[in-house]
Fold this sequence. Notes:
4-stranded antiparallel sheet, mainly beta
Amino acid sequence: QVQLVESGGGLVQAGGSLRLSCAASGRTLSSYTMGWYRQAPGKERELVAAISSGGSTYYADSVKGRFTISRDNAKNMVSLQMNSLKPEDTAVYHCAAGLPAYDAYWNPQRWNYWGRGTQVTVSS
């Protein structure tokens, strides 16, 4: 049984930083692509960042240069360092794992495992 649990969310001021972590249990996910999605009220769930088993990264244009995704396979964890936060980054952030093709990263249905999410609120 695979479980993903996010932590690190909270309330920060615009321009601030926050680091999200996702701890996986039940299986070693070193061979999986890991990602972060976010969903704001009334909006579609969108891919923020992803990292493949080989360490290749993807970032949405909206966060490129501000967010960094990383993984620690020894700890079975993936993290998202978020800098220069903006109010529009406010959302519930979900950790995900799966084996999507690169051109399917954007599609939530192609990811196998999901965390419950952690709230990130950025105030102006």
